[in-house]
Specification:
CATH architecture of the largest domain: 2-Layer Sandwich
CATH class of the largest domain: Alpha Beta
GO cellular component, one term: cytosol
Keywords: DNA-binding, Transcription, Transcription regulation
Radius of gyration: 20 Å
Number of helices: 5
InterPro entries: AsnC-type_HTH_dom, Dimeric_a/b-barrel, Tscrpt_reg_AsnC-like, Tscrpt_reg_AsnC/Lrp_C, Tscrpt_reg_HTH_AsnC-type_CS, WH-like_DNA-bd_sf, WH_DNA-bd_sf
Strand content: 15-25%
Shape: elongated
Number of domains: 2
Number of strands: 4
Largest sheet: 4 strands, antiparallel
GO molecular function: sequence-specific DNA binding
CATH superfamily of the largest domain: Lrp/AsnC effector binding domain/regulation of amino acid metabolism (RAM) domain
Helix content: 25-40%
Protein name: Transcriptional regulator, AsnC family
């Protein structure tokens, strides 16, 4: 598992993945080489899977974010999955249990674009769409303890 120092590193990197080793060393009270070694070990163990940036889709003209529940028609599961993967506006998709097989998130520039994408999916599936008004909880880590 992880200890308190590892958890401090993970939280610090979650807040800002561009923090320098020096800044991480100040946060943890370790030396920069010790921080580098801990990060290497966390990466090797698969705890840290990558470092990323957060991009605002509005900067690229994507004004609408939607969550779509998707239930493939009989025999169409793999085609629906292929359609989702082939549509770049789908930015995230989970295969789930229950009535729906997929819960997907997508960004579109207009309601017309949303309709075009859903029309392609609706050949193979039933969909239920909700437009996101506000994000009340941004993506975050679950408790580490």
């Amino acid at each position: 598992m992880t200890d308190e120092i590892d958890q401090k590193l993970i939280i610090a990197l979650t807040d800002d993945s561009r923090r320098s080793l020096k800044a991480l060393a100040q946060i943890t009270g370790l030396s920069s080489p010790s921080v580098a070694e801990r990060l290497r070990k966390l990466e090797e163990r698969g705890v840290l899977k990558g470092y990323s940036v957060e991009v605002d889709p509005h900067a690229f003209g994507y004004q609408i974010r939607a969550v779509v529940r998707i239930s493939p028609l009989p025999g169409q599961l793999h085609e629906v999955e292929r359609q989702i993967e082939a549509t770049p506006q789908f930015t995230e998709c989970d295969k789930v249990t229950g009535e729906d097989c997929f819960i997907a998130k997508l960004h579109v520039r207009s309601m017309e674009q949303l309709d075009e994408i859903l029309d392609r999916i609706n050949i193979y599936a039933r969909t239920n769409t909700a437009i996101v008004k506000k994000t009340t909880v941004k993506r975050r880590l679950p408790p580490m303890t």
